[in-house]
Design goal:
By secondary structure, the protein is an alpha/beta fold. It folds into two domains: 65 residues, Chemotaxis Receptor Methyltransferase Cher, domain 1, CATH 1.10.155; 192 residues, Vaccinia Virus protein VP39 (Rossmann fold, 3-Layer(aba) Sandwich). The chain is 47% helix and 21% strand. The protein contains 13 helices and ten strands. It has a seven-stranded mixed sheet with strand order 6-2-1-7-8-10-9, sandwiched between helices. It has a three-stranded antiparallel sheet with strand order 3-5-4. The longest helix is centred in the N-terminal third of the chain and has 17 residues. The relative contact order is 0.13. It binds S-adenosylmethionine. S-adenosylmethionine binds next to loops.
């Protein structure tokens, strides 16, 4: 792929989504854009590029973003944050929020839904008494329209199911439909999916959350974008709430009201009360 074309697409995607494609990513970008160009009926990337240079709409921009985002995810990814949620974070929050009777959780950059559904499964399996008394709300967002559409369907193939989902959850909360598995309506009902660009958190998110999962997305951003998004997320967290990053990620900023807590075999960021 010509340098000018690589630069054009990567600049466009970084401006819109924050995803930064540095040196060494040429092959990845080329193979994903080639696939997109062919699927849209263009001969090659150059033809797609020439078409876009004449102007493009939101639909095409979404297709490019979908093609250039990495949507890797699986049920109960990293396991330990979910163990901490079950054994420590949720029991503490259900006690702390006894008056409000409301707990809100945000899975920011949820890809195809496995992360918020894992949280919902923990709630249904271990906190069903509280679900009767509390309003529990999981908000799950991603920039990728295609991923959100798949997440809303809640239908997964055998490979996706085999990646991390314990068999007892499969038996209890999924129904087989041919080669696919469909998640139960009662799991779906706890999760609200929406397309959201994390660069627009400040303008679009007015709610405050008790728990925010933001895992394996900041790694795609430049330092400056990472810090901006992290600060916006921190502002969306209620005092007494928890922000959880990926196992290999660390907070790009610290704040006076921030405390890093180690819970079991995971760590997270607690907003002091
Ligand atoms: C590697 S996946 C991580 C999914 C999930 N959090 C997990 O850990 O399993 C990263 C996700 O971030 C999303 N993403 C990238 N840039 C984004 C942005 N600016 N706003 C919202 N989501 C974004 C991608 O579409 C992708 O689904």
């Amino acid at each position: 792929m010509e340098r000018a074309i690589f630069d054009f697409f990567t600049t466009l995607v970084e401006k819109f989504s924050g995803i930064s494609y540095g040196e060494g990513k040429e092959y990845l970008v080329e193979s994903r854009l080639s696939e997109l160009a062919l699927s849209l009926g263009y001969k090659d990337i150059k033809e797609l590029y020439n078409r876009i240079k004449q102007g493009f709409d939101h639909k095409l921009l979404n297709e490019i973003i979908d093609a250039l985002t990495t949507n890797e995810t699986y049920f109960f990814r990293d396991f330990y944050p979910f163990e901490a949620l079950r054994n420590y974070i949720l029991p503490e929050l259900f006690k702390k929020r006894e008056k409000e009777k409301k707990i809100s959780i945000w899975s920011a950059a949820c890809s195809t839904g496995q992360e918020p559904y894992s949280i919902a499964l923990i709630l249904l399996e271990h906190f069903s008494i509280y679900l009767k008394k509390f309003k529990v709300f999981i908000y799950a967002t991603d920039i990728s329209k295609k991923s959100i559409e798949k997440a809303k369907k809640g239908v997964y193939n055998q490979i996706e199911i085999n990646r991390g989902l314990p068999v007892n959850f499969l038996i209890k909360y999924f129904k087989q439909e041919g080669p696919y598995w469909k998640i139960d309506e009662k799991v779906k009902n706890i999760v609200n999916f929406e397309v959201l660009n994390l660069l627009e958190t400040r303008q679009k998110i007015k709610e405050k959350f008790d728990i925010i999962f933001c895992r394996y997305v900041l790694i795609y951003f430049s330092n400056q974008v990472k810090q901006k998004v992290f600060k916006d997320l921190w502002n969306c967290l209620k005092p007494g709430g928890y922000l959880i990053l990926g196992a290999t990620e660390i907070a790009p900023l610290t704040f006076p009201d921030m405390e890093r807590k180690v819970i079991g075999k995971t760590s997270c960021y607690y907003k002091k009360d």
